[in-house]
Write a structure and sequence with these properties.
By secondary structure, the chain is mainly α. It contains 13 helices and no strands. α3 runs antiparallel to α4 (68-79) and α11 (182-200) packs antiparallel against α12 (209-227). The radius of gyration is 19 Å and the shape is globular.
Length: 253
């Protein structure tokens, strides 16, 4: 059946994410142990809050004895970008996709899951997303559990190296499609430069990292939609010429 093939394809694409998550969440497990969380508490945090930035920020508030309101506000601001990612992926789902599927997919949307979902050509099957999420999420939980239980035996240099594993994994997701599409490659480069500029700008630098990501996503997304619109369905002529031409330029280079 088609849904079984989509499920297997999602599991295949989610396996590298799972392996990367095990390494990265191991660091969170170490931090959770230092903050005084039990293995069950750290595991529950990773299962219910699938975001490295949100978890580390929440862990800092917990360790400092901050109020629940501050914790909730921090999570809302830091993770608001996932709302934008979910809305973008929702446009790729079939129009008749049930609401329960949309909610379940939104629960598992992370930067990396969004990357593999956005890179899929044509319509996005909910079963593909279930396969990717179903493989990646246990990796995040497993790494957290290993880190909180026995992470103290690793040397400091190895722990520092694990901290950058997530960024390397995300680059592995976005670089292949960027090499095939010159428009996408330009947007990736512009987003990196804009993020650096925003982190140093007088007013934007005062915002949280999540807030800056939201503003930059809206600005660059609107610019890309205006300059290089995509057709509503594959094969429609409206808006397809610009992207098709960009892809041809990318292959020619």
């Amino acid at each position: 059946m088609d849904w079984q093939a989509d499920w297997r394809r999602g599991m295949r694409d989610g396996m590298p994410i799972c392996l990367g998550y095990v390494a990265v969440s191991f660091t969170f497990g170490l931090a959770a142990r230092k903050a005084g969380l039990t293995p069950f508490e750290a595991l529950a945090m990773s299962v219910t809050n699938l975001t490295s930035a949100g978890q580390f920020a929440g862990l800092g508030i917990i360790a400092a004895g901050g109020p629940y309101l501050e914790l909730a506000a921090a999570q809302l601001i830091i993770n608001l970008r996932y709302c934008l990612m979910s809305c973008a992926l929702a446009q790729k789902l079939p129009p008749d996709t049930r609401l329960v599927h949309r909610f379940l997919i939104a629960y598992g949307v992370t930067d990396e899951i969004f990357g593999v979902g956005a890179a899929c050509e044509g319509r996005l099957s909910p079963w593909y997303m279930y396969g990717a999420i179903g493989v990646a999420m246990p990796g995040w939980a497993l790494g957290t559990l290993i880190g909180v239980v026995c992470g103290s035996v690793l040397p400091a240099r190895m722990l520092s190296a694990l901290g950058v594993a997530l960024y390397g994994m995300f680059l592995a997701i976005i670089l292949p499609p960027a090499r095939k599409n010159r428009v996408l490659a330009g947007l990736v480069a512009c987003s990196m430069l804009a993020s650096l500029a925003a982190s140093r700008a007088p007013l934007l630098s005062q915002l949280s990292g999540g807030g800056r990501i939201i503003l930059l996503t809206l600005a660059l997304g609107a610019l890309a939609a205006w300059r290089f619109p995509l057709p509503d369905e594959p094969g429609l002529p409206d808006g397809g010429a610009a992207v098709s031409g960009a892809e041809e330029d990318g292959h020619a280079s």
